[in-house]
């Protein structure tokens, strides 16, 4: 089933906090994207690039193993990682092993370690707490017994930039919510990056933009209804393959 | 402004968790009630009394001090504390000093210590993370820029059991959500306790019960519209004073 998760807490070291409006979209087939824009960017660096982090992958870029009824291991080997794209120093590369525990309240507690100095050096433990949302709602509605059935059967559509275009990109629609990245290959600077978060409304078949970053956001798909697996969608000259469509 | 807060994490010791569906209601004038029923009661003790904790007070039972723009101290001296009522051993008595920090994400991080062995002995630090909800919605809708104005102007009504009735009781309505306790004086056992969480719907002027505990829940008010400050409401023989009404 598709999922839309809002992070409510992030902890590295002794004190938790949450400075981002982080949403992770997971498609029915297990493709994923996580965009983590700062709520209040502070200073020139965050203002120029207002993201704590962003990454994405297909279901080939994650290994999921059930450990116990309420515990899952997820080993991520991101296809796209903004730190790798920008070659940001002292950030993790390669597989990140994470453990996800579902609390009785319904939240998901993620724990793991990153190795910004390489795997031969000391890792840094992290904790993230995620609140599942009902992606069929426009507002940030917590998933609960009341809406579980509709949330779990939400629409799930995934667009991936066609090979040979000179770009990498993935846009995942879960319910009404879409998140996407589009990166120009071989640029390695923030100029090559584009991100979008958009939302379908009752009144329009074109998703409303909630935020966008980058000069080429007009190349993201914003019409999701009726697309079928295998379709190729041209958006202002960029071709996107529909690699998943449940609707 | 009234508030409805859902706890998303509770930490004592090294590992956070959340086993309760804890909601705290705070009225416009600062009266408060927090009910913390377990999501999945485990074992005979929790099944007999399925609450992690419950407490309530009027605005006379809390001192609020602004420390910084995003930090508030709240010193609680509960009028009603289920642990005190039941005389549960090794639980805190007296003032609890807490600090509330508003994160950039909008969540409230509460820290403090309790002294289950008395103030002359070692305290126990705790951390609780609260997600503000829009109380005007039936679903669990996170408060956000989108709904802040309606959330902050939500209805706020408070009923308090009249003196001399042999009961203590408080019921707080914030938006569509009501939470109440009713305790028979001088019983000191779970037989003397009643709790209710109820919600107004579009279709009825009588609030729907979301959960109730105790044999005398028919004595809780369940009609909130139109009551005025100073009104006395009789519910199956029990008189409640309306000590606050903004609607």
UniProtKB/TrEMBL annotation, chains A, B:
Protein name (database record): Protein HRI1
Family: Belongs to the HRI1 family.
InterPro entries linked to this entry: Hri1 (IPR031818), Hri1_N (IPR038744), Hri1_N_sf (IPR043047)
Keywords attached to this entry: Cytoplasm, Nucleus
Any single Gene Ontology cellular-component annotation: cytoplasm
Pfam families listed in its UniProt record: HRI1
Subcellular localization, as worded in the UniProt entry: Cytoplasm; Nucleus
Keyword Thylakoid: no
